[in-house]
From TrEMBL:
SUPFAM superfamilies: RuvA domain 2-like. The lineage of its organism: Bacteria, Pseudomonadati, Thermodesulfobacteriota, Desulfobacteria, Desulfobacterales. GO terms for biological process: protein secretion by the type II secretion system. It comes from the Bacteria. This is Helix-hairpin-helix domain-containing protein.
Amino acid sequence: MKRNYCLLLFSVLVLFILSESSAICQGWTDLRIRLLPDSSFAVVEVKTGKKIRHCPHHDSNGKIDEEQLIYVLGTLDRETWLDPKNEKVARKHLENHYDKFIAKVMKKGLHGSVNINRAKLTQLVALPRIGPVLAVKIVKYRNMHGLFEKIKDIKKVQGIGSGTFNAIKHYIIAN
């Protein structure tokens, strides 16, 4: 009897895990994402009974994970949508959260330098002219190519030209 109950419970768990499509995430395991409630996502699409949940940014307690929020905003163009209108809905939802976050960051201001070799997404977006897309590109570049030796090496990141570099050069270090 106990064995049958365990088998049934395992089967239900497997069905739950296989019935939902996983979203793009940074540092969250696939299982963690699958166990999140639908309210943790910007948009949930349904196609023939299968859920596709997009842009997770709340943890299991409903609290916004700011790193994840920035990551999903910075990678929104990689999502595949059943209905293209849902991308606009998701973007608006995420940008509302981001606007509240960045307003708090700007109110505090920058204190000290931002180390471009160790900075989290939340620290990178505090820099002038660096939004979620560039912040994600900086982290991805750093992960693929190693640490920046000099601050001017950040110009190797696609999208960071002389104008952006001149806006951030007095706020960053690379040691």
